[in-house]
Amino acid sequence: MGDELKCPKCSSEHVYSDGSLMICPECAHEWNPDTAAEATDGSVVKDANGNVLANGDSVTVIKDLKVKGSSLVVKGGTKVKNIRLVTDAVDGHDIACKIDGIGAMNLKSEFVKKA
Q1: Cβ–Cβ contacts within 10 Å for residue 23, how many?
Q2: Among the listed ranges 13-22, 38-47, 48-57, 71-80, which one has the minimum average pLDDT value?
Q3: How far from each other are the two terminal CA atoms of the chain, in whole angstroms?
Q4: 56's torsion region: left (phi>0), alpha (psi -120 to 50) or beta?
Q5: Which of 39, 51, 37 lies closest to 83, judged by CA?
Q6: Residue 41 dihedral angles phi and psi, to the nearest 5°
Q7: Hey, which of 31-35, 66-70, 80-84 has the most confident mean pLDDT?
Q8: What is the structure's pLDDT at 43?
Q9: CA-CA distance, 111 to 16, in Å (whole number)?
Q10: Phi, psi of 78 (to 5 degrees)
Q11: Where do the domains of the chain lie, and which CATH numbers do they carry?
Q12: Do residues 96 and 103 make contact, with C-beta atoms less than 8 angstroms apart?
């Protein structure tokens, strides 16, 4: 662990590795140091195919997703319109949206593709 490794969220120097991820014990932020340059921008969010997403885009869910704390499921192929990118993503959920029949929720960009 070198001096150059700091948490991109809180700038703590007390980070440790867990496999391929780095973890900050102070704010519980996890990140991949190989993609840290993209994550610190806050402006680069990519879908499952590597396409760059922007606010207002429409995306399609690529697999069935269980809604945490509920028996609802977001089916693969569901189209989500007018997404908002979240700069301070919680647990990797970097897309805020509203899905018909379910309501407001957050999604991970790795489970959507640009429509």
Answers
A1: 16
A2: 38-47
A3: 41
A4: left
A5: 51
A6: -60, -45
A7: 80-84
A8: 59
A9: 27
A10: -70, 130
A11: 1-39 (2.20.25.10), 58-114 (2.30.30.40)
A12: no
